[in-house]
Amino acid sequence: xxxxxxxxxxxxxxxxxxxxxxxxxxxxxxxxxxxxxxxxxxxxxxxxxxxxxxxxxxxxxxxxxxxxxxxxxxxxxxxxxxxxxxxxxxxxxxxxxxxxxxxxxxxxxxxxxxxxxxxxxxxxxxxxxxxxxxxxxxxxxxxxxxxxxxxxxxxxxxxxxxxxxxxxxxxxxxxxxxxxxxxxxxxxxxxxxxxxxxxxxxxxxxxxxxxxxxxxxxxxxxxxxxxxxxxxxxxxxxxxxxxxxxxxxxxxxxxxxxxxxxxxxxxxxxxxxxxxxxxxxxxxxxxxxxxxxxxxxxxxxxxxxxxxxxxxxxxxxxxxxxxxxxxxxxxxxxxxxxxxxxxxxxxxxxxxxxxxxxxxxxxxxxxxxxxxxxxxxxxxxxxxxxxxxxxxxxxxxxxxxxxxxxxxxxxxxxxxxxxxxxxxxxxx
Amino acid sequence: xxxxxxxxxxxxxxxxxxxxxxxxxxxxxxxxxxxxxxxxxxxxxxxxxxxxxxxxxxxxxxxxxxxxxxxxxxxxxxxxxxxxxxxxxxxxxxxxxxxxxxxxxxxxxxxxxxxxxxxxxxxxxxxxxxxxxxxxxxxxxxxxxxxxxxxxxxxxxxxxxxxxxxxxxxxxxxxxxxxxxxxxxxxxxxxxxxxxxxxxxxxxxxxxxxxxxxxxxxxxxxxxxxxxxxxxxxxxxxxxxxxxxxxxxxxxxxxxxxxxxxxxxxxxxxxxxxxxxxxxxxxxxxxxxxxxxxxxxxxxxxxxxxxxxxxxxxxxxxxxxxxxxxxxxxxxxxxxxxxxxxxxxxxxxxxxxxxxxxxxxxxxxxxxxxxxxxxxxxxxxxxxxxxxxxxxxxxxxxxxxxxxxxxxxxxx
Amino acid sequence: xxxxxxxxxxxxxxxxxxxxxxxxxxxxxxxxxxxxxxxxxxxxxxxxxxxxxxxxxxxxxxxxxxxxxxxxxxxxxxxxxxxxxxxxxxxxxxxxxxxxxxxxxxxxxxxxxxxxxxxxxxxxxxxxxxxxxxxxxxxxxxxxxxxxxxxxxxxxxxxxxxxxxxxxxxxxxxxxxxxxxxxxxxxxxxxxxxxxxxxxxxxxxxxxxxxxxxxxxxxxxxxxxxxxxxxxxxxxxxxxxxxxxxxxxxxxxxxxxxxxxxx
Lengths: 428, 412, 263
Known about the structure:
The structure holds three protein chains of three kinds. By secondary structure, chain A is α+β, with helices and mostly antiparallel strands. Chain A has helices spanning 21-34, 36-76, 86-89, 100-108, 141-147, 172-178, 213-216, 224-230, 250-260, 271-274, 277-314, 316-324, 329-365, 391-417, 421-426; strands spanning 79-82, 112-127, 130-139, 154-157, 167-171, 185-191, 197-208, 219-223, 239-244, 267-270, 367-368, 384-385. Chain A folds into two domains: 21-69 and 279-426, no CATH class; 84-265, no CATH class. Chain A contains 15 helices and twelve strands. Helix content of chain B is 57%, strand content 17%. Chain B has 16 helices and twelve strands. Chain B has helices spanning 2-15, 17-57, 81-89, 124-127, 152-158, 193-197, 204-210, 229-240, 250-253, 255-293, 295-303, 308-344, 348-351, 354-362, 375-401, 405-410, and strands spanning 60-64, 95-106, 111-119, 134-137, 147-151, 165-171, 177-188, 199-203, 219-222, 245-249, 346-347, 368-369. In chain B, the strands form two sheets. In chain B, strands 2-3-8-5-7-6 form a six-stranded mixed beta barrel. A two-stranded antiparallel sheet of chain B has the order 11-12. In chain B, a hairpin with a 4-residue loop joins strand 2 and strand 3 (111-119). By secondary structure, chain C is of the alpha+beta class. Chain C has a single domain (43-260), classed as outer membrane lipoprotein receptor (LolB), chain A (Clam). Chain C has four helices and 13 strands. In chain C, strand 11 and strand 12 (217-227) form a beta hairpin. The longest helix of chain C is centred in the first third of the chain and has 46 residues, at 2-47. Chain C is elongated and about 85 Å long. The interface between A and B is large, with 44 and 45 residues.
């Protein structure tokens, strides 16, 4: 120490001096660098802990985000608007005759990327030698592509073209039950509102496989126009599907739709209102994160406190000397606490920084986990995970670092103040 | 000579009690934390899988031919003698028979498609916990005719309640449309959406009458201890396959649960890796310090003729001792925690939002988790940490070997 | 010189071709018309504008005894309505079906209520037989949905001319078949109908026999449906009695009638 303590500050009331924060900071740095090897090793511990924790969080955020995306973009969309009661009974009788207000509201909304209309009805598909229960969905082929990924799931043949009112795309399960192939004729029978049966013939244009059994075993997709003519819906539809620009904005768009649309005629729902499954996975994941953080803090503390105590014992003499020279207990405590805080902060910052860098790199490329997990497509998981940084993660890490610093620093610092200066100086 | 080395190493460990203790604790804390997480992890996974099996699926099921992939009433088991004899010789008591098909359930105004399950009221409770999920009314009882237990949500959708009649329209074995009325005697709330909204359970005899399936069944469902499942399944298959009876284990019936567990475990292994790294850096620190503090001593030893190899070995052996002790303490502590929480259980509802706990119910998780640890996981973790400790000593040992005796003696 | 001849040869060839085409066209048009007419005559003979009948249906399945179903039916072909009342077996006694336009109701006496059958439950087999719901309920005319041409004519030993007609389904007709090949007597009595899918696989054959006097006219008394893709399966429909073109009371084709029959 080249500068006597307290030289630049006036004495306080009880005889001890109050040092400025800068001084403590510089002191901490100096003390840390005095034992570089130990500092570096502890830093490594911290960087590894905080860094890998952060990266694990960004990975989790990434795969949860992709789960949500997959669910929303496979079929459902972020928000759906139906006639009241349709979501419960699914009956074609419950259709919206005039969807113009909904479409207009969607198009005017700044956060809605795209919207499309659909008509759902259940029915029966027949070929010469087999039959299968199906759910017919009339879609707008071009608009649907802007909202969901259904068109991308066509594995055989092609998605419907606009105006192809005689074509049908079958879910792979339906196609298998019917033993239907591209170009085959399928006669589909449904009930129009009011209950009359009506049969229409369609040709298989494509076969689709989304990985979700509910879709693949039941869906028969035709054009909305075809459905409207077939079931005498006029210009009506059963559902309007909205795609929002991000999950965060879903609630805001939802509120706006509720405001603008007449609740008697139109029922608006967010994806998780209808199927909370994915949302539940996300929430339980969030809950376990806190648990994991706690464990990491415990482990890191286990390592750091040891190091701190070792450093304490090594510098016993030094502390004794300092106290003999007039350093107050509070100052000693503060100094040691600062040391730990600075150490942990630097370690934490470096760890976080490293993880953020990795996130940036792999965020684009993605990490291929196909070797480790079987196809989890029914959980809406991709085998390739893209880590994503989030404000929430930064806050968690900050909190973790702060708590670690505090807990790691308090005990040794307190212990140091318990030293008897005379005995301490005698230590070698 | 090695005996001496061991003695020296051991003495060093004892001499520096404080330092040794610190190192041992580093390892121990890491291990305890990991074992505790495993305890929670494995405990909740086993809980989840057990609940799933117990709710409705069973450990395994037996069907005719390709019934599982292509469910048709025609593909049924007309004579169960061979099947039941196989169960008896395998010592399986917890089995029950079912008749499963589809039906249109009609209420006053609405109708909806449901899974129709004919169940044996006497045997079903031996195998599944459905009877414990009754929210109002009762489960099926022996002697019941044309009664029904249905999910509470499903009933609500149809506008029906306890005591009401539900009409089930279905196709019998010949393909003729047939229907009958059933009295709702119980409502079920299980957390599983299919059971709660799309399933109706009736006495198997009534289902057999309705579907013209007298004496026939479509499924046999059984429970066996999970650890014996694969072996039992293999033995049974030998007997059943010649009769064109197919056995499916619960993981084939619903692979998602196992996949979720594997995914979780995957993340756990990554986490172990992280903790190992943290522990390594901690241990390197302490071992290095201890080594450097004895520079002079090593110098003297070397000057007296001890080979560098021996020096290195001493450092390494010390680390091994510390590792073993740390692992021992950690394992004892960790297993102790696991055992304690294994008996007392971790009450999630105290820690977490009650809504979230209910959500977890839908994932077959109880609100109290009893900690358990799979032997594989235990071994990998303990050995992993032991290895980590030894690896940590390599650098310091190597440093020690590089000491120059004269300089070392001069070191203060 | 050669050129001139060639030119005129070409001209002649063209003329001949045109004449032949017109002739063939005319005759085939006439043949098509004849086919249509014959089919109409067949439909008329077997169903008339209205008919009431008693049927006995025997369903054969491998490994099991034959099953017999006896039913009474009222058929208003023009109005596209039909009513069926099951008499036997005892298990299904007094089950009734009503089809009016695009709606199908079924009444079960033990339920004491009728149920509207949604399309998803109208799976291919009617009452577990080899006839489909389509066959009994969706009587679309072969003339409307098919392109009918005469393939052959033969005169049998009994002196009656039998015409083979090929009915090819219109591409946009809501029928599952690709084509149907039928043999019909010139007097409109059907002999056999073979149903092929679009891949030209023979899926089922319907054989008519027991030609006898039915309600004052000659008609087949026995229809046998053989599903070619299911070995051992067979359904035979015997017409026990039939009356044609007698006016049917309006209240037959009502939902109230569904339960009335059970009393």
